[in-house]
Amino acid sequence: MTTSEIRIRIISASWPQASVVACRLATDLTYVAILGHLGTDKLAGSAFAGVVKTISSVVLWQGFGNALITLSSQAVGAGNPKLAETWLQTSILCCTVGSIPVAIIWWFAGDLLAFAPCEDTNVVHYARLCPMVHNLVMA
């Protein structure tokens, strides 16, 4: 197998995951760009809330997502698509159950952030609104 064939195989295997990550980052970038035009307090509140959102959700999208990719790839590579289907269903169930406490944390992120050392009450107010709006939009 030549080097160019290996590159083509690697790119063809990795482009789905790369496109998912690019779309996720583009969504976050768009969100921040829009808030940046609204004002510095709103942008700071969004960034403040984004820290809580990222820390609380990293288990779902990093843990379950990467596990699903690994296990499903092994199942398909072994010629067992039924097992890949089982892993997909298990991952969907775990993500659904795991998203309940994450949604609760996001809903009360502003209350958690009220304990952070921030003297500007507007920033804390917008930090309370951002996760709530995100939960309502994503629901």
TrEMBL record:
| Gene Ontology molecular-function annotations | antiporter activity; xenobiotic transmembrane transporter activity
Provide the protein name.
MATE efflux family protein
User: Where would one find coiled-coil regions in this protein?
Assistant: none
Provenance organism: Triparma laevis f. inornata
- Protein origin, superkingdom: Eukaryota
The family assignment reads: Belongs to the multi antimicrobial extrusion (MATE) (TC 2.A.66.1) family.
Which InterPro entries does the annotation name?
MATE_fam
One GO cellular component term: membrane
